[in-house]
Amino acid sequence: MTTEFFNFNRFISLVNRQITLNLKTWMIAIGSIGGALIFVSTMMILGGAHENIINMYKTFGVFSFFITGLVFSSMSFSEMGTYSKSLQFITLPASRFEKYFTSWFISFVLFFILSLISLVLFSAISSIISVLIYHAPFEVLNPFTRELGEIMLGYFVAHSAFFVGSVWFKKAAFFKTLLTGFILQTVANFWGLIWGFAILKPHQFENFQESEFSNFVIQLDGNGAIEKYVIAFFVLIAVILLIAGWERFKEREV
Question: 18: domain range?
Fold first, then answer.
């Protein structure tokens, strides 16, 4: 595909540039997480809890990469936060969409794939240690499960928020995005509570929560529809955030 809007060769060049700039930081972060995971798993093996190693990778391991990915996402457009680097970024021979899409692709798709590969590799190393010490069965983390699929959906939404935060905020984007999300969530919960009590009387509101709403959810869940609605809702939120980030990105590049 060759247009002024998107050119595949320019996209590959941008990917190579971003990887070159960030590879060292990524390797340090992944190596640190991997070292911590192997250390924890070794302590578990020595303590006789080698059966729980894979579960540790599913929880602590996934959480570590999840948070690390959000931190890196919030740094996607850190170049635009300083004068010298912003000039270099703006004058890159690529369209605005290519710059925006490349940053999203690297921080979401590439980092997520790299995280799964790293988790499988580190779990294999831990499993080898377990086999050598306890002659336990060799077992590695399976990345193709429903559980990890749900985590990927959650990361897609969270990444969109922190990715947009990297466009909106010039400095400390991670913490500012975190604070903004907390404030918006608190306001939304409070606003929903106000309307709930405004429309329904307190005892009606309580009965509605316990009966009508519960029956409604149970009916949807029985039909398998609620899962589709939830997925569609969160995907819609992520897409809206990415569109908002794109509009803000165009403003900042002017």
Answer: 8-253
